[in-house]
Design a protein that fits this description.
The complex is a heterodimer of chains A (272) and B (282). Chain A is of the alpha/beta class and 272 residues long. Chain A has nine helices and nine strands. Chain A has two domains: 162 residues, P-loop containing nucleotide triphosphate hydrolases (Rossmann fold); 75 residues, no CATH class. In chain A, a hairpin with a 4-residue loop joins β8 and β9. The longest helix of chain A is centred in the C-terminal third of the chain and has 20 residues. The N terminus of chain A is likely disordered. Chain B is mainly α. Chain B folds into two domains: 38 residues; 227 residues, MetI-like (MetI-like fold), CATH 1.10.3720.10. Chain B is built from eleven helices and no strands. Classes of the chains: A alpha/beta (272), B mainly alpha (282).
Chain lengths: 272, 282
Amino acid sequence: MMGTNSAMSNPNASQQVILVQGVSKVYNQNTDEQVIALQDINLEVCEGEFVSLIGPSGCGKSTLLRLIADLIQPTEGALRINGKDPYRARVDQDYGMVFQSATLLDWRTVQKNVELPLEIMRYSTSERRTRARDALRLVELDKFTNHYPWQLSGGMQQRVSIARALAFEPSLLLMDEPFGALDEFTRERMNMELLRIWRETNITVVFVTHSIPEAIFLSSRVVVMSARPGRITSIVDIDLPYPRIFETRESPRYFEKVNIVRELLRDAHEVG
Amino acid sequence: MAEMTGVSASTSRRQSLGSRLRYYLPTIVVAVAVLVIWEAAVDIFNIREFILPKPTDILAEFLAQLRTFLTPGEQSILFEAARATLWSAFGGFIIGCGVGIVVALATARWTILSEATMPFAIAANSVPIIAFAPIMNNWFGITNPASKMAIVAIIVFFPTMINTVRGLTLVDRGALELMTSYAAGGFKILWALRIPNALPFIFSALRVASSLSVIGAVVSEFFGGPRATLGVYITQEASGFNFTRAWAAILVASMIGILFYNVVLLMERRMMPWYHAQRQTH
């Protein structure tokens, strides 16, 4: 199997989706507890890419994701999402977000949870119903539409939250350690599913994780970060061919990439 | 891939009927035992009626009053009194809880209002409101049910308001972030997130308020009111040495309290099916 690079597996990879320029984030500025969460971040993500942010805790990978999502504002620098201000992109619902905990609303059935963003975006009732069903079919939970969240396992709950993020067909999916709370077995299964969804929808994904195998297996590019202050130390192209299957995890090229990223993380840690 | 933790509805209902019987059985046994011991003790120790009447006597008095009440053309003061007290308690409950929830919604909407009123509400919650009963008699008139309703309303207002504010503000941060990511407006966040989140808090307050409202009504009637109210009936019958009648009135007051509580419970199950089912299984 000859490797195709990420640009080739995603023909539209030229269109820029995210641009981060000289971004810094300082918490408690000008006080004794000042923390530089991110320093001089520059990053470009193109359409159809699957980009992972990886690094030790405190490296600001979640902060960077929150900046992209306009949940927090940068201290310095600028971001563009689909060529727009992040606030505009958030209001235009350009992205769907998946958090580490599924954050499903207990009082809503699976179906109603997935309909929540569609409700906020004022879709018609019938449109909401069909879109939520389609999204649930995508995560293979269309038989559980009338269940309440507590009736589902952790992995199923997280799949519902992925369906919810995809229901309004955003061009960008932001994921903040979505499988961090799951056991290894469930996590690997979820990785396969996520890759299938990514290929079916051609959505751009930014994925925060602290698992090296997960980052390598999923991504077309891995952004390696280090802590104190949080910064990008290197970006690694993962030119393993798609579709990636179970055997991908056993190929020498995969291990090679895992080792490269592991080395980079160790170097970053020593420097930091 | 599709594992399921719940069981099908029909089997769970059948199971719960059996388990419910097992759940209530100790309670029933204890209740019957207490009544039998009570009855026997009055006989054996020859306890006088003004200290403790027999349960069977109280029940007989109650049934006699009930028969009078159900006979056309005849009047039972006990049941007249029950109706009046029920009305005072119910009216006060609706006003107090209603205003409490509305004020809580307003304070959750305007944070400044909540910061200004919450310490006051928590302090006021520990004031013995019942002490104001004579004042209310003065304000509204001793025979006017409004004087009792006012006491009940004030008593139930504070716990309802405090709990509702808690429910509206103690919202999962992740859920709030999620709503922000959808650029949801303040009203949508209130309606889709804060209010459903507050429902369990509100209902736990309403349960407390349901008992408090009957207590508040009866005790405020102790400070004076029309003859046909349970509080006045109990004090008058007790001072006239008709203790079995007083006890029958206490029985009726308890029944009103239990009725209120169960109505609230029923509403709770209707409005929060997710909550109830979740708590039954776990």
